[in-house]
Design brief:
2 copies of one chain form a homodimer.
Chain A lengths: L6 E3 L2 E3 L5 E2 L2 E2 L4 E2 L5 E2 L3 H19 L3 H17 L2 H11 L3 H24 L5 E4 L12 E7 L3 E4 L13 H8 L4 E4 L5 H17 L7 E4 L5 H8 L5 E5 L2 H13 L6 E4 L6 E3 L1 H20 L11 E5 L2 H15 L9 H15 L5 E5 L10 E6 H6 L11 E7 L2 H10 L3 E7 L5 H14 E6 L38 E7 L20 E3 L2 E2 L4
Parallel strand pairs in A: 7-22, 9-10, 9-12, 10-11, 12-13, 14-15, 14-19, 15-18, 17-18, 19-20
Antiparallel strand pairs in A: 1-2, 3-6, 4-5, 7-8, 8-21, 16-17, 22-23
Helix pairs in contact in A: 1-7, 2-4, 2-6, 3-4, 3-6, 4-5, 9-10, 13-14
């Protein structure tokens, strides 16, 4: 498939008339000559949103089998893009082939997971309370299900050019919920975005769906994103990116005449707690695994372990020394964009110059590449200056030495909301674990033991979310089947004739959806 | 039980030091001499919120049976308040005995409904993905459930002094979710609030729960409410009241360093669509039932039918004439507060003076009482001036004459989000119904046929919610079991030792909760 640099507005491809930009080759930070991408203008945003609004009623009322088939077809068409997709993504992001092939598999499989969810009807959450004409007062028939909220704006993330981008988790869950999607492509991988966008656009056409089910807009700046979030047809926003970006979208959404929800996944330092038993039993292995996790993919994961907490002592010092050796051996890494590299360097500079911070190790240096960094602070200093615990996106991590267990708890009480918190613990740490878990639960969407948080499984039980500021809305997840709930709202029908009801709600259950009926899960005694 | 006018801060009763106020006897708008209530000060808000925060970890990790028992006990203690509660509520609100006795039953039964929900474990939404060590890459064990978001601020509503007030749906669902509650009492029924608050306070003590599980604060103004919503320990807000009030809380919550969700149920005109078949077959009955519903409880229901849409013609004119006769015969009604009466009179005044509005009927007049009003406008004029369709809280309704079916659809497209939309339709209206339902679904939380929206059943299938501005968050309901979801957030545990997991998540399922296991509802093939 050709990359043309055009906007995809419903079924059309159209050269943008906004500011022109080129993709950047992440390996050398040089522009990729062809094609030139042009930003969208306000009227393009309007056209895409109006088409999405028009498409909504037809798309949301499609038979489940048809919507599921469309999602499956999106997956197949992304796979069919073949090697050119992977190669373009490699050039635009600097991520290695194996990682991008894995990400493509994940992207396709999460579209298919949502297709099965749609087929099952489980996300409709059907609840029926049949009429009780004899009761005083009589009860009329009540039937509950969940429908899509309306068109959704999705902002592609820079660090997952496939799985959190044009056809990533936000788009897949919104489409599964019956919501048309308008994507603002991330300017760091516009060609990758266009290829995937064209695959979806073709799937829309092949299924005979209204063209407004999907649009893709470019913009190297913020105007298109702002206009999207302000457009009255847009009913929810999915975003993965920086805290500043997420907060800006939240403000815009709250200031609308009709405020809308923003699901922004923004920042997390993913604290790891090195408990005494674990440090004593396997400190050396832990140090090695930690360094590998922190520098994996040049540290460009939302779940990168950025804060390692332990109680002062020999075992912690040994861990620090072992980890420092590993970090020193880390190769200089290619980052996603020159902007991300600059932000990383500024962040590390801020920390290493801080009088309370000790630099334990720096990795190899190379021009235009990121140099890994392992830093150390005391818990007391961190408690006194929360900025020491702020996310620096990239291959760095901060060891935090706590004077004792009570200081460890004090840090947990003080830290902000996180995507993940990890416990490294042995059986003999059980008492301490029990005092820590309630604190941890209040601060994180995912609680791990004896592993590292990088690597997010796509399944029913995943939570990729967490209290603010990890996300804008800790009641949600952006990964896994529960992600669909973000884009659904409940509707109840009272006393409607069976023939007027949506099929999923009819008494005879022609679609065989799982239901709660008269207060019980159907089939239950 | 004595009414003292004191604040209930955790286990204490304390005389407030803020501005003093008295309850007003709704029947004659005279102050009720005893007791004097005193508003809370900022330090009282802080004390209540800090106690709530301290109570959270213990309260949320209580065994389900214990939390359920506490909710049941709250219900029993409210019932045990006996006639003095009903009499005080009658005096403070002007609502009749039968209505308040019914409301007390509903209040107790919804506490018991949430107790059973807690016992069932269904709201935990347990999902387990067991480890797949053989898979490449291997999957570690993942377990998902939902826990409380943290302390919740609840604002009592004026129009349901029991069921939407101190121990109403918001409080019951938040407590069921494991969240401590700080209630800001509605100043229109402070004595009723104190009685119910003391019952809950005693239930907290009797169960040996941390005192911060419940507090009750008074304030005749807005300072306490604002301070509550701004307090960092508060993690969500439940509110039923005016649009101005709800919007103000939304703004405050969005402006916090850590924004929190506000569930505000704000305003709705609950359009009723009188389809031609229904009007022809039973226009006279409909007019009678409509007038009864619109003037019930002096029109002080969130689901009052405020907008009646029909297609111009003889049948519609006859409906208007019949309804006018009914409205003319309506007695002057006691409203909840002098402020609500004044707002009603101003709203009706604004409409009756509008050049495009015809006054079809006024009910009986009496000093200090509300006079029912039936008005009429053309759909064209309504489309040109949306203010004609804004809620006037009280015993009034506006008939909207549409030139044809297409104008009826145009009005549906234009109106704001609603709690309910009702269809009055016969079998012969089926074709029209089918074109209207998709429009209606986008605008309402509950869709009724051939009934009136007043009367909200408390059950699994109810939605008392709807798109903005009916509520601040159309993804939720404030009535029924689904209301608990507002105060829950998902947490995933990865690779935790079975003994460290909450009981509800352990492999052997000791609490016998319903689970999704390995992608299937347990018990399913």
């Amino acid at each position: 498939m050709q990359i043309t640099g055009e906007l995809l507005i419903g079924g059309r491809a159209k050269r943008g008339e906004g500011v022109a930009f080129r993709a950047i080759d992440a390996a050398n930070n040089e522009p990729i000559e062809q094609p030139v991408f042009h930003g969208a203008l306000d009227r393009d945003v309007e056209a895409a949103c109006d088409l999405a609004d028009e498409a909504f009623d037809i798309y949301r009322t499609l038979p489940a089998a048809k919507r599921a088939q469309f999602l499956d077809d999106c997956a197949a068409r992304i796979e069919a893009l073949g090697d050119p997709l992977v190669e373009r993504a490699m050039a635009e992001t600097g991520l290695p082939r194996a990682r991008l092939e894995g990400e493509r598999t994940r992207t396709a499989s999460q579209l298919r997971m949502f297709a099965s969810l749609v087929r099952s009807g489980d996300s409709l959450d059907v609840r029926i309370e049949p009429a009780l004409p004899e009761r005083q007062p009589p009860r009329t028939d009540l039937r509950f299900w969940r429908i899509g909220v309306g068109p959704v704006a999705v902002f592609g993330a820079s660090n997952f050019p496939l799985a959190f981008s044009v056809a990533g988790g936000d788009t897949a869950s919104a489409l599964a919920a019956g919501c048309p999607v308008v994507v603002k492509a991330h300017p760091a991988h516009p060609g990758t975005s266009e290829l995937v966008g064209r695959a979806i656009q073709q799937a829309v056409a092949a299924a005979g769906l209204p063209e407004g089910v999907f649009s893709l807009l470019f913009d190297a700046g913020h105007d298109v994103g702002s206009a999207l979030v302000r457009h009255p047809a847009i009913r929810a926003v999915g975003f993965t990116g920086s805290r500043a970006g997420g907060l800006a979208l939240m403000k815009l959404a709250a200031a609308r005449a009709e405020p809308i929800p923003v699901y922004a996944e923004m920042s997390s330092v993913n604290p790891n707690l090195l408990l005494p038993g674990a440090l004593a039993a396997r400190g050396e292995t832990l140090a090695r695994e930690f360094a590998a996790s922190a520098t994996l993919g040049c540290g460009q994961f939302c779940t990168n372990p950025g804060l390692m907490l332990g109680v002062a002592g020999e075992a912690f010092d040994a861990f620090a020394a072992n980890a420092a050796r590993e970090f020193s051996a880390a190769a200089a890494g290619v980052m996603l964009t020159p902007g991300i590299l600059r932000a990383y360097e500024l962040g590390i500079d801020r920390l290493t110059r801080h009088p309370k911070v000790t630099t334990l190790a720096r990795g190899a240096a190379a021009p235009g590449r990121a140099q890994a960094a392992l830093l150390r602070v005391s818990a007391g200093d961190l408690l006194a200056d929360a900025a020491l615990g702020e996310e620096v996106f990239g291959p760095s991590s901060v060891l935090v030495e706590c004077a004792n267990e009570s200081e460890l708890r004090a840090v947990l009480r003080k830290i902000e909301g996180q995507l993940t918190i990890t416990l490294h613990a042995q059986a003999e740490d059980a008492d301490l674990v029990r005092t820590l878990l309630p604190l941890i639960e209040r601060k994180a969407g995912r609680v791990l033991a004896n592993g590292f948080p990088t690597g997010v499984e796509v399944c029913d039980a995943m939570v990729h979310g967490g209290p603010f500021p990890a996300t804008s809305d800790g009641r949600s997840t952006s990964v896994g089947t529960a992600a669909i709930e973000r884009f659904l709202r409940p509707v109840c029908y009272q006393n409607l004739a069976d023939a007027w009801l949506p099929e999923a709600l009819r008494e005879a259950n022609p679609l065989h959806v799982r239901r709660r009926y008269a207060g019980k899960a159907e089939g239950q005694q």
